[in-house]
Amino acid sequence: MKTPLLLLPALLGLGAVAPSQAQTTSVWNNKQCAVVLTYDDAIDGNLDIVVPALDSVKLRGTFYLIGSSPVVAKRLPEWRRAAQRGHELGNHALMHPCDGSLPGRDFVTPDNDLSKYTLYRAVSEVRANNTLLNAIDGKTARTFAYPCGDLTVGGVKFYDQLQNDFVGARGVTSGLQTPAQIDLTNIDAYMINGQSGDYLVDLVKQAQKSHTLLVFLFHGVGGGHGLNVDLKAHRQLLRYLKAQEKNIWVAPMVDVAAKVKASQQTAAGKR
């Protein structure tokens, strides 16, 4: 049977769109989207509340550890066990330096003021933290998270010297992105501080509809940090992710970034 001419534009349009969507979902393990749960600063609540909560629903997250944190030093065996269960121990720098010259940075001390760092010191401290993390989990592939989202030392992007040390780096700019849109040197993330469970779930639904990557940036869960999300809200998010596990790929940042990197390299090779 001949195809009516009026239908040809629609059919051609479908042919143009379908491969793109198929390529995107293949990066997300043939699911609608990818969700990454990240937790910053190596606080007690990560081990006391978050890891058990994730383990209870068999989801895996990324914990960005500050190497100098007392919670790292005092609880090494517990961090090691978390890594053994599939959670990523990410790099949040050795001293968590932030740019004290920026507005609202009264909390920055002279000892960890990134604006007073040399480029060499910034890079060296991140690499020293990688050595520590490797001693804990035995892994060489991991991701980095910029302390305070600060990217530069003296106007120079210090991560440029670290790209071979990591699979990717998480930033603090909110956004949902397709694999092609993602900048692996500064991956978008939604910082959560006091938002409701409905808000968290709605973000996931938006990612499902747009076939994009959604990264959550948590600090305290149920307390323990100035930036915090309510336990009920966090639990509501985990319940939704578990219920939708056939449609949503929930994985540590290192796994998702590796898939994105491979897809971008493949796309670049076809140009």
From TrEMBL:
Superkingdom of the organism of origin: Bacteria
Keyword annotations from UniProtKB, A to Z: Signal
Pfam families given in the database record: Polysacc_deac_1
Domain NodB homology: 33-251
One of the GO BP terms on file: carbohydrate metabolic process
A GO molecular function held by the record: hydrolase activity, acting on carbon-nitrogen (but not peptide) bonds
Signal peptide: 1-22
Name of protein: Polysaccharide deacetylase family protein
Organism, as annotated: Hymenobacter cellulosilyticus
